[in-house]
Structure prediction request, 213 residues.
Amino acid sequence: MSFNIQGIRIPDSQMARDATALVRDTESDLLFNHSSRVYYWAALAGRQRDIKVDHELLYVGCMFHDMGLTHEHCSCDKRFEVDGANAAREFMQHYGVTQQDMDKVWTAIALHTTPGIPEFMAPEIALVTAGVEMDVLGIGYNGFDEAEREAVVGQYPRPARFKEEIIQAFYDGIKQRPATTFGNVKADVLADKDPHFAPLNFCSIIRQSPWKG
Prediction:
């Protein structure tokens, strides 16, 4: 039986089991445990907010949200979020998931680093971002009981140097495609790790466009 906290567990379905196996075999321990914690934070946040959510879709969204950082799913010319979203959509096509539900998961993954938008969308979309923000940024940290935090981290360990290790994992997954970070938070990762990184500037693009006025 899977880990259970306040009645929340990994969905007992073939798609969920296969998602676990695929992500486990593809991602590092750091990313796999991070993604697993993200699911529990997301599901617990949904309970806190009394939001009805499809836990199977939520689980796939959480587990695939960083798949675009892996070598196996790197397009090397698209945002890593889009690569992860595409991987999830391709995966779900084998399980009879409706186009509407695949679109929800795709959008949840594609927007999880774009704050201020997902929270107003479908529960599966909003909660993937909420789970990521809790695990990486600590947003909502005090809204979880200490016992909840300890239980989730006990099941899916968080290294003592997780903060630096996850920043490094982000960098390793995006350093070969710096232009894809334009307009999103991952540009900060490149700026932190690469002293030669020159981010694209929105105003410069406007001024250098072919328009005369």
User: Anything to note?
Assistant: The radius of gyration is 18 Å. DSSP finds ten helices and no strands in the chain. The CA atoms of residues 86 and 194 lie 28 Å apart.
